[in-house]
Model the fold of this input.
Amino acid sequence: MANNTLFLETTAIIDHCFAAATGRIDRILEQHEKKLSAQYVRMEIKRGVLQYLVLLHNKLTTYTSYYEVMDSIYRLSATSSRNRLSSLLKAMAEFFKDVEKEKIDNLDEYLRREMASYTRILIRRLWNSLERLAEDLLNPMDCYLDIAPPRQAGAVLHNDGSQCNKSEIECKIKEFFEAHRKDFEAILKALQALPEPDPETKRRIKSLKEILRLLPYASRKFSNKEHNFKNCWSCGDAILAVLSPVKSTILTSNLKHYQPICNVIDRKVISYRE
Amino acid sequence: MGTVLPFQKKEGSQSTEAPDFERSYVETRQEDEKATPEGLYKVKDVDRVTKLVSIVDTLNLALENICVAIADFEDEVEREIQLDLLRNNIFELILLKKDVSQNFGDLLTAFHVCLKNKTNTPFSKIELVKLRNVIGLIKNNFNMSDHVFNECLYILDENFDLTIPMRIEPENG
Done:
């Protein structure tokens, strides 16, 4: 069964929801009998793309004009998430402005209201998409068991506990690393052998080294409740790859980072990008 | 610990948002001065009541229009006339949705996306039946719970493309 099992990594879930590659992902999903994902993916979504959507929503509900919202988005650091946000904003405005304007008292207010509604729909679709796309969410390390979607407070949304250290429950990530120590050591070795590692890979190597170094010592802690919890985030790709069933196929847009990891732990990796 | 549904309000959270229509109407009445016999029968907030009546009327019209479109599905012109009327009903509801329950308003936006998306290709009969089912759910759940909202959103998401507003190319590139 495992070789017909598809494991959906974070980028696949997000791109499916954002219509970046929905059709291609759907076709790949149809070719696999079993589809899995992980609670870790939800954690990554909550502290990543969801933060941006909540930011956009709250600007739409509290700023007094569309151009003010647009300006404030452009003032953010130029990252791929910022670019995605401004593209989303422009596309939504283009879609919703196509109405019978003579019936509307204040077009700007109407636009912001409809775009805020649509952003809330988008957040819900993204939150629900894990259950929709995957039959099961793997979570052997008890990652963020009490994770919650954004909540409404007045006109704005609050993404409380966007980082897993706010969880009431301590995770078992150290036990997970102990159980799969050989896999992580193989990954570290493979990454260290890469000729020109990019900054993200360098961070991953550093974190893996630190985590593997503390494993033999019971007194040295590693979890969401410890100061070193961000080491887990830096090696998220390695964690998700190890978490996926042996011989399964990982679906991602991030072949560059997953390929060297999957090569050494008997996983296949495919991309939905053309 | 119970599961927190999307947008569920935490217990004890301070909400500054305009409360939903019916609750705020009751609260307004409770805060009024001492009740008098004639005051018991006097409607204080005429605008809001008028708005509620308009919404219910428009929802009834929308349901009627889509039922006729389904019944006369084979008659293309009649079907298109009814669907244009339905589009107009939904647009009118969107203009009325301010200050009404947020789930209700958000679902109208999703409904609007489904209708607008189909201006170039005809609806199938199954799609129309799904839309009718959603209008029925909206009509019977005016102060919409998260559960009903998610049920309606699921029906729309399974049968229509809700991602269109994200894929529009701006006119100026």
Remarks:
- Confidence is low (pLDDT under 50) at residues 1-29 of chain B.
